Automatic annotation (TrEMBL):
The lineage of its organism: Bacteria, Bacillati, Actinomycetota, Actinomycetes, Pseudonocardiales. It holds the Pfam family Usp. SUPFAM superfamilies: Adenine nucleotide alpha hydrolases-like (SSF52402). Belongs to the universal stress protein A family. PANTHER family: STRESS RESPONSE PROTEIN NHAX, UNIVERSAL STRESS PROTEIN UP12. Residues 9-146, 159-296 form the UspA domain. Signal peptide: none annotated. This is Universal stress protein.
Length: 298
């Protein structure tokens, strides 16, 4: 793909799993809404080099893995066309480590779409290492497609939820969420949670004289101020604002019941700069019941 076409395609990680096929379908519908091509991408992970490498190569294992990768890509292309007939699809196979290859390729994409699980992992695992790694270090928004359980279809209806913590990264997430809500013509729920510890669980009465209701009123005003500019930019999107006195993960999960997408920044105010994913974003990938979009500044 040349660079002028860059940032105008939706990159999908394909690994032969049912979860990746669901990602391909989700991405194809997104591509149709955004009028962009889908770029189906398989990283072919070869057996590690070692004393038996020569024997492995002789046995034709490398060729077999590559052929299998191409077969998975053809299968994913059929799913994409089935989900969004007429959508433009490009396929690519590269030999290398999956997370690293997808992160490299994400620099040229508008979005990355992945399944929550792949062929590896173990039965009870909720989200795979490639999904977490690309969400943490991808160069554009990364959507991990999931339903309630790893094998469930993602929900298709309902509002979009965005977590707002007032940081610059959460502003990028808010913009992405408005764009998504506009494309789908569904309401957007902006959720601000403002208590990192649970007062009720920690003390029967707060140990000092704080007026929680006054703080909450302030938080509500700050959220409204923060959203005012976006409201102007996206007047067609129906916006609901929720200020929740709870920890971020619980607050967001509760608000996202029945939603079709949760959007968060890669990290919030709490995480230090070197960290790829803040704890809330990380936990959402494991516990959300709908697709999660992790937005990182480019
Ligand atoms: N080799 C690959 N090439 C392209 N995309 C991949 C590859 N491996 C994984 N993916 C993408 O990442 C998603 C999540 O898979 P992941 O590998 O993270 O989970 P897993 O295989 O269950 O666990 P793990 O690999 O950590 O043992 C897949 O649905 C797919 O979209
Ligand atoms: Mg895997």
């Amino acid at each position: 793909m040349n660079d002028t076409a860059a940032h105008h395609s939706i990159l999908v990680g394909v690994d032969g799993s049912a979860s990746a096929l669901r990602a391909a379908r989700w991405a194809a519908q997104e591509a149709a809404r955004r009028n962009m091509p889908v770029h189906l991408f398989h990283a072919c992970v070869l057996p590690p080099l070692g004393p038996h490498t020569a024997a492995v190569t002789e046995a034709g294992i490398v060729e077999a893995l590559i052929e299998q990768g191409h077969q998975w890509l053809r299968e994913a292309r059929r799913e994409a066309w089935d989900a969004a007939p007429g959508v433009q699809v490009q396929t690519d196979l590269r030999v290398g480590a999956a997370a690293q290859e997808l992160i490299n390729e994400s620099a040229r994409a508008r979005l990355v779409v992945l399944g929550s699980r792949g062929l590896g992992g173990f039965a009870g695992m909720l989200v795979g290492s490639v999904a977490v790694g690309v969400a943490a270090h991808g160069d554009c928004p990364v959507i991990v497609v999931r339903g309630r359980l790893p094998e469930d279809e993602p929900p298709t209806g309902g509002p979009i939820v965005v977590g707002v913590d007032g940081s610059a990264i959460s502003d990028d997430a808010v913009e992405f969420a408005f764009e998504e809500a506009g494309l789908r013509a569904v309401p957007l729920i902006a959720v601000h949670t403002w208590l990192d510890i649970s007062v009720a669980e920690t003390w029967s009465t707060p140990p000092f004289d704080v007026d929680l209701d006054a703080i909450e009123a302030d938080e509500r005003r700050l959220l409204a101020e923060r959203m005012a500019g976006w409201r102007e930019k996206y007047p067609d999107v129906e916006l609901r604002q929720e200020v929740v006195r709870d920890r971020p993960l619980r607050g967001l999960l509760a608000q996202a019941e029945g939603a079709q997408l949760i959007v968060v920044g890669s990290r919030g105010r709490g995480a230090f700069t070197g960290m790829g994913l803040g704890s809330t974003s990380q936990a959402l990938l494991h516990h959300s019941e709908c697709p999660v979009a992790v937005v990182r500044p480019r």
